[in-house]
Amino acid sequence: MNIYFACSITGGREFEGIYQDLMAALLSDGHQIPTAHLAGSNVLALESVVAPRDVYERDVAWIRSADALIAEVSVPSHGVGYEIGFALQAGKSVLCLYRSGRKVSKMITGNPHSKLSVREYADIQEAISFAREFTLKL
After folding, report:
1. Are 95 and 72 within 8 A, CB to CB?
2. Tens of pLDDT along 17-54?
3. How far apart are the C-alpha atoms of 135 and 133, rounded to whole Å?
4. Are 6 and 82 in contact (CB under 8 A)?
5. Most buried residue, 51, 64, 110, 131, by most Cβ within 10 Å?
6. Side-chain half-sphere exposure of 7, counting CA atoms within 13 A
7. The CATH number of 3-136 is which of 3.40.50.300, 3.30.70.3270, 3.40.50.450, 3.30.720.210?
8. Whole-prediction pTM value?
9. CA 87 to CA 73: how far, in whole Å?
C-alpha cells in the first residue's frame, strides 16, 4: 500500500522518535511511504534546500497517488492540517494519531468525515497497532 505519512517538521520535533518507530514498522510491513524521510533526524536540512513551490507540488502529487494518509498530530502543524484536509477532499482515507494528553485541534477531533479516523495512543506500540489496524481495513 502507498501511504503518505505526515508529521510536524518546522512546528517541533519532540515526537521524532515516535515518527521513526512508526515508519520502521510500516515499512517492515511492506508499505511504500514516499515521505518516510520526514521521520529522520536530518529532515530539516533535507527539506531546507527544496523551494516552497516544489514542496507543495511534490507533496500534493504524493497525496494524490497515495492510497491513504497517516498523520501524527501530537505537535500542531499548519502543513499537516492542510495535508489532512487535502487528502480528505481527494477521497483518501486518513488516520490521525496523537499522544494521550496532547491537545489536538477540534477541526480534527470534531470532524465527522467518514474517511477520517482519529486515535489517541498511550505508547508507540499502541500507535503502531492503530496504524496496522487502519491499513488492514483499506
Report:
1. no
2. 999 999 999 999 999 999 999 999 999 999 999 999 99
3. 6
4. no
5. 131
6. 28
7. 3.40.50.450
8. 0.97
9. 15
